[in-house]
Amino acid sequence: MKIIVTHDVDHLSVNEHIFNDLYIEKLILRDLIQLLTNKITITEYNLRIKELLKNKISYLKELCEFNLKNNIPANFFLASKKGRSLSYSNKQLDDALKLLKSYENTHCYLHGIKNETKEKIIEEKLIFEKHLKTKNTGIRMHYLAKNNFFKNLSKTGYIFDSSFYEIKNPYRVDGIVEFPITFMDVYDVPLVKYNKQNFEFIKNETLKKIEYCNKIGLKYLVIDFHDRYFSKAYCNYFNWYKFLIQYLKNKKFSFTSFSEIEMNKI
Ligand SMILES: [Zn+2]
Q: Domain with 128 in it: what CATH number?
């Protein structure tokens, strides 16, 4: 079993959301409800408020430093269009790509918004490639519309997709190789207050899942972690990612990236 680490870049700053969407308003309300219902600690709550005031809700640099220190190849998905609380500009995209490319073993692909038609997929791909300054061969949808997805995606120049969450080996549909997401922060870390006992529970559930993946002979274990959560303001997510990487490293699993995989053999 090989490990593929991926990161979705949904937010780059607080400011991009002002007058564009309701992400910040919803976030303030959500955090307050989570504090009042005892789902987060007061420290986390205060740190989240501080993040908003400091216009700092992106942790690309910190995450890259962590991955570099641990020798982890990372695959980032970034957007070139806006939609569904994803509101950063193409200028911000350029800055993010520049930062990510300054790190070795970091690969960038499209975080897709549009998939209703082939034309929309191609248009979005071309915009992204202008910023990436090279061909883009992979995609992960920000939110997935399942109808005709693979049919629309085929013959648009894409080689692989990684949008679906399930425990399954990569498979081919309409000429596209699908790499299902095995672990995702928001699905595999329950919303419980951060403390020793709860975190032990989270770790055990993750260990059980890794063991199951190994047992069924999963070839690629795909992790999706949002850089947004590489922060002490989100203790469970933050510590879970660090634990997961450390555990897989200690167990001597090898890490790979989409670019190293021979796709024609899948
Ligand atoms: Zn997303």
A: 3.20.20.370
